[in-house]
Each structure stands twice: as C-alpha cells, then as structure tokens.
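Worked example 2:
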Amino acid sequence: MSSASAGTELGDPAAPGAAAADPARDGSPAGEGPRRILHVVPWFSAGGGVQRYVGEVLAHQREAGLEAELLTSSAYGAGDDPLHVRRIAAPFFLLRTPFSPAFRASIERADADLVHVHGPNPLVDWAVLGLERPYVYSLYNPFPSTPRLAGPLVGFGKRLSRWAMERALGIAVLDPGLVSEPWVPGSRPIWHVPPGVDARTFRPLGLPRRREVLFVGHVRPEKGLHVLLQAMRRLPADVRLRVLATVKYARDYARDRLAQGRRLLGDRLEWVEGAGDAELALAFNEAAVVAVPSVGLESWNLVMLEAAACGAPVVRSDLPALRWADFAVTSRAGDGDDLARALGEALERGPALSAASLAASEAYRWDRTCERLRAFYRTALAARPEPVSASP
C-alpha cells in the first residue's frame, strides 16, 4: 500500500489484512458484497468523463446481476432513459436539481444495500448531509480555480464535500493525488479505483492513419483547445485538426474557438459536435495523434484511455492527474510552442507510440474496475460501526 495522507492509505483488495465481507451486515453472501446499489449523481445526460464512468459502471454491474439504479436530476433529461435511471420530475428548474427535497427523500426511501455518491458536487453533497443510509463516495476531481470574488462560494462547496466524505464509509478516487487536497478528509478509508475501457467499442480497426491531430471532449477553457489551435499554426500545412466537440456549458468559449480555428487554420479544421461512440472509435483509429492539451481540472481523462485502446499515439499536458498515461508524449500545460514540439515528435514516432498505447491499454478493463469497486464496497460495509442499542 502507498501512503496517501495522514491516517489514510490507498486500499488494495489483494493486500494482506483487507477486510472480508460480513454477510450479517450487507445482507449478501460472504464475498459478494451488496446486491442493491443506488448511484447518486447530478446532470447525468450532460456528457463528460464522470457520466461515461458512471454509465459504464452501471451497465457492468447490471450485467453481473446486481440491482444497480441511478438517481439524478432531470435538468438534462433524455427521453430514452433506461428503466434503471430515475430523474426528479418537477415543473420548476430548482425542484429538478439535487436541492429538491424530493431528491433527498428518494435517496432515503431507496431499496438499496448501499448508496454510491459521485462527487464532488455541492448539490449532491448537500443532499446526503446527515443521511442515515450507509454510503460510499467517489471523488473525481479537485475544485476549479476561480476569480477571487467567487472564493467564498467555492470555499463553502469544499466544506460541503468534506462533510459529506467524513460521513461516508469509504472514499474511492481516480487519481491518488486527490488525497493531498486539504479539504479531503484523511480519516476515511481511501481506495484507488481507476476506470476501464470498453474494448468491444474502442479497439484497433486496422485503418491507415491520416496526417491529422484529433481533439475529443468538452470545449471548455480548462481543456486547452485554444492552446492546441495556437500549436497547430506551427505544424506543417498538410497536418489537419479534427475536433469532436461536446458543447454543454461554455458555449461562448466554444463559439469563439470555432471562429478562431476557422481564422487560423481555414479548411485544415474539421469541427463535429455530438459524435457517438462508433464515430469516436473510428476517429481514434484514423488520427495520427490524439491531443489532450488540458490546462486544469483533470482527474483522469478517459479520452486518453479510449484512444490508447484504439492504438492511437497520444500527446498530453503535464498535469499531475494525467501522469498515469506514461505512454504519451508530454508537453507543458498552456505552452503552445511546447505542444507543437510534442505533436511534431508524435507525428515522427507514430508506429512506436501506437504500439505503446495499445500495450498500456491492456491493463484497463471495465470488468476489473467493477471487481475493484465490489471489493471496495465489501470492505466499506464490513467496517461499518455496529448500531448502538437503546438502553432497556
């Protein structure tokens, strides 16, 4: 085990001394853990890494025969939700968010052995404060840096998250570095549970690679597309840029980046919004290099893993949370010149980097992620304090 913070270690289901499941506590056969799980996450259809992560976990848990459900807000509700996704329906926006009393009541009434809270998000953290149900907490990313005027609001959000985590049976993190954040409690058991990749969708297709740089993800300032556009100007004129964009939050920024790309690159830029998994997999197989130029607010970045599973060379920034991708060429975050240097290196070393990406992806599978989550669930429930009996 590796030390995480004062009084805390990253759990390992194979480590000596790991707690065994207690069938008297979680209601399931020894070694199996809880069978009824309620996942709680806001804005489920908004897209992004957390939503993809939770969706994959839900699908695999249900394939394994678990009764896994998801409770979410309806702000981005889709008309084709599966039956195991429940949204808070209400006529007003505020009542469709986790601030709604109905959201809290739905958690309390859920027929579940364990609640899995996905954060940090002040709305969800508020909804579980004082919750009597046993729950675990997944921590995905740090709080973003904000203007000074917003500091008190962010500070309150951090306190909410800390209070919610202090009452959890355990905390799962994608990035072990998150435990160094001062607002993350060191008194709770913390497990490192990395995500997996759907190798049935994201796999090598044997296609020739275009002389093309690919960007996939939310078009928001912290994803660094503006840095990539500047870097593209320094690459040879025959290298194109394809952007498979998700535009949900920073619409003004996305509009400005599209205009900037048209101005700087002309017909070298291809911009597509709303691509599905099949289109993503095809693009990963065709790209000469996949660029992840993030400048902040990263916890893992599934794009790199999905690209690697397709054998795509990857260039990433040097943010601490992205260091796990040691198969990628690294550039300094926010430095367009250095990003251009890294992209040029990746274009030259394509076959070797492609082989390194594919080999690295073999270690990540969703079934292994879900096995680790179930071990985390078992350990958390087994360590739950016995209820205090009332005096006769």
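The chain is about 35% helix and 15% strand. The two ends are 44 Å apart (CA to CA).
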